[in-house]
Amino acid sequence: MLAYFPPVIQSRLDKIRKESKNWMPIWTGDEDYEKFEVHGHPTNMVVDLGKRICTCQFWILTGIPCIHACAALTRVNKRPKDFCHQLCTMEAYNKTYAHHINPLPGQSLWEKSMYT
Question: What does pTM read for this prediction?
């Protein structure tokens, strides 16, 4: 069976999940049970699970739920891996490298152009 995530993504997600246990998510009272204020050191963060954003910006930059989002996801009994961006999957990785790149000769062997 193939892994769902490349090893580097899986190890990062495992580390984040482990560290998220040090944060305390507090539900803000919204109807959808998606917005949380996550308390921890050195500051508090706001997580919106519906929009998949956190004030730390890690989630939106990497596509992987941050420590704060993982704490909130654990609170609502959801798996962080289900909230990773599609581009983080092994399928996306394999599609990226499915095509080969033709090799190039060294720069000293390039044809001279009239513009150089």
Answer: 0.81
